[in-house]
Structures are given as structure tokens and as C-alpha cells.
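Entry for the shared binder. Reason: the reviewer on the internal report wants the predicted structure included alongside the sequence.
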Amino acid sequence: MAHEPASGSILKQPIAVWAIAFACVVSFMGIGLVDPILPAIAESLKATPTETEMLFTTYLLITGVMMFFTSWLSSRIGAKTTLLVGLALIVVFAGLAGSSHTVGEVIGLRAGWGLGNALFISTALASIVGAASGGAANAIILYEAALGLGLAVGPLVGGLLGDISWRGPFFGTSALMAIGFVAIVTMLRAPKAQAKPVRTPLSAPFRGLARPGLAIMAATALFYNMGFFVLLAWTPFALQAVGVSDALQLGYIFFGWGLAVAITSVFVAPMLTARMRRTTVLIVVIPLLAIVELLAALFHSSLVGLIVLVVIGGLFLGILNTVLTECSMEATDLPRAVASSAYSGVRFVGGAIAPPLASFLASRFGTSAAPFWYGVIVLVIATLIVVLGRSKLGRADGREEHRVEVGEAIAVGDAD
């Protein structure tokens, strides 16, 4: 049974939603913008591929761990203040990263950037779901569209600015996030009459993961994100091995990848979930992504093959990002902010593990194909988790009678 499609036009949203969405685009640009400049950073700062991959790990690990605490913080200082603190941290640490002189400095400053990212992204997801018109499905599609657009534009901006200097993308992100800060300040208004939010306990996201539905979705996202970041973080080095290391060329390649993510997250994912269960979509599409990484392992020495597979992988990633997020937000009756904190935290930790492990495997086995084989394995595990846990995902599939109110206040705590 398919879930009910979103109602109304996704484009008819309050101005506050668009302000958050714009800042989301810029925030997600921070994930992909370093892709085209990884070889340049390694060369300029005399860093090994593993050290360079740590730019992803520190950023994603801090983002993931801190996301467990964002619902606790936002219920005390408010969603808007949490968003602004997160944006301000990104502005500062992205700017400082651009001023660094060693790879260790950049790695450390990316951790501070990740802290700001955690405060912003997790709160932004709950805020968009709470403020958007047309239902939760429309809100999540808009959020994942921002993710896809950010991932698309990030490598392009990284390539264009990185062609001048590897420092350029960091300064560019800092400037764009400052614009996002101003947009949130001026456009996000709290309702005139609003009940005082109940404070979320610090333990709420962790206890939320004890709920079978959310636990299954978080575990799926953990392994899925490993496969995701094998494709995103390792492929620049695989392309370098076949002769492509120019920042602008890599930027164009990953722009195509990110554009594919954006298109399928907005258009294809809703079409599929309107016709079949969300879990069915996951069980079908995750193995398709595994096949893409299998082919990347087999054709790792082919430039054309890698480029084509990267873009095709983006098509599947867009579908999966949207459907996984929808499932996690609908899998339990937990408040949106709590579910978002728990799911997003585990999701980003998975992404933090993959980049340095991919580089280690390539070095250990002496081939750029090894990380892609690892990607195949973790994606198979993600599929098995959904298959084996499907009986607990009735709510995520929209098959239970009780539905969560979309207009639920973002910062309502778990009163259990």
C-alpha cells in the first residue's frame, strides 16, 4: 500500500520556509564543495589521501554526534536561535579554514564547522516540517531538494573557486552562510500566539532510538550513508588515478552528480512512493545503488565509466535520501525534533566512517576499486535491515491508522 501523496503545490510555501531552504542549500554545499579540491589540498598542504579524507570525517562525525543534542538545545533557546547559532559557527569556522596553513588546521576547523552544521541542519529539518504548507511529505521533499541542490552547486562552486585557490571554496561558503544568517533573522518570525514549548530531555533522542521503527531506519541510514560517502568522497581520488585532478573538471562531474540527486529527490521519489510502499522503494533502489558501486569497482580504471556511474548513482541517491527521511520522520509518534536529532545523528556518523576507511582500504589492497567493494557490502547490509525489519515499519509505510499531526510544535519534548 502506498502512502498518501503530498497535498498542494510544493512551491506555495511561507517565506520563512524559503529562507530556511536557502540556508539549507548553502549548508549542504559545505559537504560537496571540498570534493573538487581534495587533490589540490593534498598537493598544496603535503597531505596523504587519508589525511585529506579526514576533512569529511571530522566534519561529519562532529555533525552526527552533536545532532543528538540539538532537540534538547532548541527546546530551551528556541528553533530560530539554534538556527542562527549554527549559521554563525559555520561562517566563522569556514572562514578560518580558508586561512589555514596546514592540513591539521583545516581538519580541526572542519570539526567546528560540523558543530554549526549539526545545530543548523537538524533544527532546519524539524522547522521546515513544522512551518511548510501541504503536509509533511511536501516539507521533506523541499528539504531533500535543498540537500540535492546544495550537493549539486557545492562541487561546482568548489571547482570554480578552487581553480583559483583551494582556499576559495571555504571563503565562499562563509560569505554565503552570512547571507543565510541575514535571511533567517529577517524572514523567520515566531507565531504571535505560541504555547511555551516543553523542554526536551537530554536523553530523548537516545530513548527514541529504542523505538523499533526509528531504530531500524537509523541502522539502515548508518550503512546507507557509508555507501553514499564512498561514492562522494572516494571517487575524486579514483578519478585522479585515471587522469582527472583539475578542480574545475571535478566540479563539473560532481555538479552532474548533485543535479541528478536534486531531480530524483523532488520528482521521482514522490512518484514512486505514491505508487508503492516506502519500504518497497528502499528494497528496490538500495540494491540498484549497490550495483552502481559494483560496476565502479569493476570499471575503476575507466574514466568514462566512472563519470557515468557517478551521475547514475546520484539518481538513486536522490530517491533514497527523500524516502529514508520520510520513513524516519513517520516511523514513530515521536516529536519531529527528537526523531530528526536521532536519525540525523546516526546518519552522519555513518558518513564520517566511510571516507578514511575507503582510503585505508585502497592503500591496503593497492587498488582504487577496494572502497567501491566496501560500498557494495554496506549497501547490501542496509537492504537486509529493511527487509528483516519491515514488519516494524508499518507506520513508516503509512499503513497505521494513527497519523502524526503535521503542525505539531517543533520543540515539544518526549514526556514519557
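Summary line for the report: DSSP finds 15 helices and no strands in the chain.
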